[in-house]
Every structure is written in C-alpha cells, then in structure tokens.
Automatic annotation (TrEMBL), chain A:
Keyword tags: Activator, Cytoplasm, DNA-binding, Phosphoprotein, Two-component regulatory system
Pfam families reported in the protein's UniProt record: LytTR, Response_reg
Stretches assigned to the Response regulatory domain: 3-127
Molecular function terms from GO: DNA binding; phosphorelay response regulator activity
Keyword Magnesium: no
Taxonomic source organism: Candidatus Mediterraneibacter stercoravium
Signal peptide start-end: none
Stated name of the protein: Stage 0 sporulation protein A homolog
C-alpha cells in the first residue's frame, strides 16, 4: 500500500483533493491510502518519517510556513524518501516546474484554479504512478551509481558501453546507450567494483563486454552495439577473443 | 680543462633544468594555465634530450660562433617548448608554436641581462668562471624570470596575451611575428655584434628589443581591447534595450487587461446581484485563465530573466530569447533562484550557454518545420500537456539552477531522431551538414579546461538534454 500525504494551507483545497483522491482510489482499485492531510509541513514530515515507506506527496507550492516553502519541503522529503513521488499543487499556471523536476525529480504539477482541471490532474498522476511502480517491479536490474557534482544518478549497468579516462586528472567519462556523463573517479576502482562484465581493454578504456558488437583487429578498435568505438591494446586481444567466444556460446 | 661529451652533458643538465623551469614559469604566467603535473616529467626528459644532445655537439665542434647554428639551436628550444606546451598544457600546435617562441624569446632576453655586469666572456675552461657561469645561469636566472612572470601578471599582460591567442585569424600577422621573435633576436645580435665580448649575446640589444616589443605589442593589443570593449558596451546597450522593451510590453498588456477586466467585472457584479453563482464562478475561472495566458507568461519570463544577475549572461539570454521569438521558436527560461556568479569567467560561461542555446534553437526549428510538414500547428507548444512527462513542450527549455554547490545549466530541445552521441564530439561533426558543428567541440574544450566543470549529455523521451555543472570554487 502506498501512503499519500497532502500539504496545503487552504483546508478547502485539501478537502477537495482528498475526496477526489479517495474517490479515484475506490473506483480504480489502487493500492493507496491518504494517510495524512495537513497544513503543517512539520506534521507531514513527522508522518512520513514514522511511516518510512515510499509515498506520494501532494504539496502546495506557496506554503505560508515560516520555515518551509513547497520547494524546501520537497528537498526535505527527498532526503527521507528518495524514491517518493512529488506532485505540486499551484494557484498559478506559471511555475518554474522544470526546476522542480530537475532538482527534486518532481513528477507533475496541477493547477488548482479550475476544479475540473485539478481533478483531471490528480487522476492522471495516480495513473502514471501506478504504471511506474508496476514497471519497476517487473524490471530488476543492477544500477551503477554515479555522483555528478552534487547530484547522484543511477544508470542501469546494462546501459553502459564503456568508461574512458578524461582530459583532466581523475576524470572519467561514462559512455552509455542513452548519453554521456563526466564524473570524478579512478578507472582502476571502477574495474574492481564492476567485476567481470567489464574488461580493461586499454589504458584509457574499460569496456562492457556484453555490448561489444565486433572487433576491428587491424585498427585495434572495438565497435559497440550502437556503433561507438574505442581502442584496445594488444595485450588484451586474446582475452577479448576468449570472452567474446564464451559470450557467443552462452 | 678539456670538455668531453660526457662532462658537457653533466654541466648541461642543471642548466637545462633551470631553463625548463623558467619556461614553465613564463608559459604559466602568459597562459594562466597550470601544467598537468603527471606529464611535466616526461616532457622534461624529452626537452632535455632535444637541447642537450645537439648543444653538446655544437659546442664541441665550436659551431656556436655561427649565427646559423644559433638560429637552429634557438628553434630547437622552441620545438622543445612546443612539446612541453602540447603535452603538459594541452595547447593546440598553432598556439603552442606562438607561446613557445614567446617564452624562448623572453627567456633569452632576460638571460642576457647579466651581460651588463660582465667585463669579458666566461672562460668555461677556468673552474672559477665555470662556477660563476653556472650560478648565474642556474639560480640568478630563475629569480629574474620569476620577477618577469610576476610583472606579466601584475601588469595583466597575460590577459592581453590570451586575447591575442584567442583572436585567431585576426592576429594572423602578429602570430607570425611572435614566431619569428627568436630569429629576430639572433639576427639583431649578429648585426650589431662587435665581437669584443659575449659573442652570441648583447645585453643592450636584448634590452632594446624587449622594450620595442613590449611597446609595440602593448599599443596594438590595447587598441584592440578598446575596440572590443566598445563593441561589448554597444551589445550591452542593445541587450538592455531588449530587456526594457520586454518590461514595457508587460506593462502594456496589463493596462489592456485592466481595461477589459473592469468592463467585465461590472457584468459579473450584476450577475452576482441576481444570485447567478455559476456565472460568477465561470467568470473567475475565465478571467484568471485569460490573465495567465496574456500576461502571466510574460511576467514569468521577465522575472526569470531578472534572476540572472550576471550582466553578460542576462544580455545573452535576452538576445537569444528575442532571436527565438523572431524565428517563432518557443523558448522557456527558468531561473528560480538568483544566479549571481559562477566559478568560470563570464565570457566562457556565455560562450558555453550560447553554443548550447544555438544548437537547441536550430534543432527545434528543424523539428517544428518537420512537424508543420506533417500537418500540426506551431502553437501547440508549451501550453499543450498531452502526456505526463512531456509537457515541457516542444521548444527550447533553458534552466539555470544556482545553489551553494554551484550553478547547473540545463538546455533541452526536442530531437527529430536519435542524435548519434558517439559522433557529436568529433570535430566538425554536425547534423546540419559539413563544415559546421564546431560549436559542440568548443563547448567540450570549455568543459575540459576547468577542473570543477562537468557535463552530461543524454536523450530522454524524445528530448536531447545537455547539462553543464559548474561547481562553486573550491567545492
């Protein structure tokens, strides 16, 4: 059961959101429950801490609280519940939502000035959350965690093609199927922590063996499944052949 | 005392080490860059080999009298310096050649100063003279060059020099002049040489040359800097104008809205009198919705731009926003917290942001054209929330997030197709045809040249996202 928390100064809005949520949970048979509806951010945080589960949070953007705004409350919640779903309720159509999404991984925002629109928004959110949770349950894959300056990103290990040492010292560039990312680290440590799936094919490269499509023996290049290339050194040629043969057999 | 190849090499090792350190100091002062420590030692070994072996040979054969050999030796030093610049400073060859020539020229000019205090050439076969020669050329020179490096940064000559290097073709002629400076030195000394003392140096000529070069170049660079400053000021003025125009248009819209609002309010009051609550509710929803559409968006954007408090960046964004408006590319800017400073120079920041925005704008324009061809309307953009997660709309989104850890910039645009990530960083690659696409390469160079800058590129739900993080200094 996923707990739902509400925080809004206006009791009327809370009432409206709560009744719509409860109605929708009942109609669609979602495994969710509204466990807290309050005007006080502190109470919400206490409730969330006590519960300790991944939750859904409907938060007012403009809280009339001395300590918290919608944004800082979101930050606080993220500290406790890193995978929870944050939905913002706002009076303005205009909100720097991209920033909320970027910084807090907020899921969506709904505008409260038109009740019909707001209810549609609530229904859409619950629907999306249910889908996401289901998808996550189906996929159980290892993730590689990387610190990108002050934020932490999780990248499925299977989506990584190779690591490359960057121009700056201790700088590593991760080449993935979906994108590239720079971070600070050492290729030797990566090699140790990632295990057999990754092979140090060159002084500057650590390659995911399962993504190698072909070897260009003449130019000493590895071609990955998406067409990207990196070099390999003579030393690992035999090892590569052996690993790839094994791979093809299995 | 007879010199052998071996003893000469032994003497040359400290001399070359001191020259190497001098060059490091001069290069670092001129380029304001620090060498990659790991690569300095291999560069030094290469440097010494290039200098010591031919030097020994020339000396033993008594060839240093010949100006031609001096010239050859001089350019061997330049070549060795170029290798150092390439390996430890990662300068492109072209810039490395210019900086190496300058450093070698400066080194020798400073080295010649000791000539003022000498009555005669050192006789290196006399141990006393040899000791004095070694002390002057190993230790004193380090102090003098250190002083020169301090002078360069004190007088902000490095700024001028870097402007000159980044000026590219504009300074083509002066680049050649810089490259020829070591040759000019050899020739000038040779022309006035009385062959009485110091047969391959002349302190007066050196000092004279140094002053001429300093004077002429200072004048030229300062003139150029001034022209550029004027251009920059004009650009700022234009940017301010755009900003004011934007504010004025908000004011105009508010006035129109107020007029309209008052009329309709009168109608609503009548309906309230009649007790028609539903009509009043509809009126409220309609009026707030209309306000958001007509004025809200503009006020929002102006407020966001107001949060960008780095003048150059604000100007750049105002110009880019106006340009995109002209090209009918929807643009959304978000800066929720004030962006007051970053740990990289404003110029570099603007270059990086400009490259990202230009690329995003071009890609979006192409995307919209394609969409139009497919029969969809252009105005179905930011207000259109078709599906959760995609309602950031079809346009360019730029995010500036500042907090205590630094500033993050995120630029996002819809992508027509999968952008081949492996290839976009290759020089000259562009989806826009050949001969373009240098933008992302220079962007990459900016990212690479700062320790606390990181970048990230990815594709997500049909969007191409570029993220740039600039950590706070020391963070």
């Amino acid at each position: 059961m996923i707990p739902i928390y509400l925080c809004d100064d206006d009791p009327a809005v809370r009432r409206a959101v709560r009744s719509e949520l409860e109605k929708e949970i009942l109609i669609s048979g979602y495994d969710m429950e509204v466990v807290c509806d309050t005007g006080s951010p502190r109470k919400l945080l206490d409730a969330a801490r006590e519960n300790g589960k991944r939750g859904i949070y409907f938060l007012d953007v403009d809280l009339k609280d001395g300590k918290y705004t919608g944004f800082t409350l979101g930050q606080e919640i993220r500290r406790e519940d890193t995978r929870g779903f944050l939905v913002y309720v706002t009076a303005f159509g205009e909100l720097a939502f991209e920033t909320f999404r970027y910084k807090l991984e907020a899921l969506d925002y709904i505008v409260k000035d038109d009740p019909e629109e707001m209810f549609r928004g609530i229904r859409r959110c619950l629907n999306v959350i249910t889908e996401r949770v289901q998808n996550e349950q189906e996929e159980d894959r290892p993730y590689f965690t990387v610190k990108f300056m002050d934020t932490v990103r999780h990248i499925p290990v299977d989506d990584i093609l190779y690591f490359e040492t960057g121009g700056k010292s201790h700088r590593i560039i991760l080449h993935g199927i979906k994108g590239n990312i720079d971070f600070t680290g050492s290729i030797r440590d990566l090699q140790k922590s990632l295990g057999k799936q990754f092979l140090r094919v060159h002084r500057a490269y650590l390659a995911n063996v399962s993504h190698i499509r072909e070897l260009d023996v003449r130019d000493k290049k590895i071609v990955f499944t998406n067409g990207e290339e990196c070099f390999f050194s003579r030393k690992v040629k035999n090892e590569l052949f052996r690993l790839l043969d094994l791979d093809f057999q299995t | 005392m007879e010199y052998t190849f071996f003893s000469l090499t032994l003497i040359n090792i400290p001399l070359v080490l001191s020259e190497f350190l001098c060059c490091l100091m001069l290069i670092s002062a001129l380029t304001r860059k620090r060498p990659d420590k790991k690569r300095v030692v291999p560069a030094y070994i290469l440097y010494s080999l290039l200098l010591i072996l031919p030097g020994d040979f020339f000396y033993l054969r008594g060839l240093f009298d010949s100006p031609l050999i001096q010239l050859v030796n001089m350019y061997l030093e330049v070549a060795a310096c170029m290798l150092l610049l390439k390996a430890a400073y990662r300068e492109p060859w072209n810039d490395a050649a210019v900086t190496a020539s300058t450093a070698v020229f400066l080194f020798w000019q400073i080295n010649d100063v000791d000539g003022f205090f000498l009555a005669d050439n050192y006789d290196l076969s006399v141990p006393g003279d040899l000791a004095a020669y070694m002390a002057v050329n190993c230790l004193l020179i380090l102090a003098l060059v250190g002083l020169a490096a301090w002078f360069i940064s004190r007088k902000r000559l490095d700024e001028e020099y870097r402007n000159f290097l980044s000026g590219g073709r504009r300074f083509g002629f002066w680049r050649v002049v810089f490259f020829l400076l070591p040759a000019v030195r050899v020739i000038a000394v040779e022309l006035v040489n009385e062959r009485i003392m110091l047969n391959n140096s002349n302190p007066v000529v050196s000092l004279f040359l140094l002053l001429i070069v300093y004077g002429v170049l200072n004048y030229i660079f300062r003139c150029d800097m001034q022209t550029r400053r004027i251009q920059e000021q004009q650009m700022h003025l234009r940017q301010q104008e755009l900003y004011i125009q934007n504010l004025e248009s908000v004011q105009r819209d508010v006035r129109i809205f107020r007029h309209d609002f008052k009329n309709r309010m009168a109608g609503a009051v009548l309906q309230a009198d009649e007790g028609n609550l539903q009509a009043v509710q509809e009126f409220i929803t309609e009026v707030t919705g209309e306000f958001e559409r007509k004025v809200g968006e503009k006020i929002f954007q102006t407020a966001q731009l107001g949060n960008i408090q780095i003048a150059e960046l604000k100007g750049l964004l105002a110009v880019k926003a106006a340009e995109m408006q002209r090209r009918e590319i929807p643009f959304r800017l978000e800066a929720a917290a004030p962006v007051t400073q970053t740990a990289i120079p404003a110029g570099e920041l603007c270059r990086a942001a400009g490259i990202l925005l230009d690329n995003a704008a071009e890609e979006t324009e192409a995307f919209l054209r394609k969409r139009e061809a497919d029969g969809k309307r252009r105005d179905e953009t930011f207000s259109n929330r078709d599906d959760l997660g995609k309602y950031s709309g079809i346009g360019v989104t730029a995010l500036f997030c500042a907090d205590e850890t630094g500033v993050s910039i995120l630029v996002k645009n819809p992508a027509r197709s999968q952008v081949p990530l492996s290839r976009i960083w290759k020089e000259g690659y562009s989806t826009k045809g050949s001969g373009r696409g240098m933008g992302l390469t220079s962007y990459r160079q900016i990212v690479e040249s700062y320790e606390h800058v990181s970048s990230m590129t990815y594709q997500e739900d049909g969007f191409f996202v570029q993220e740039l993080k600039i950590g706070a200094k020391g963070g």
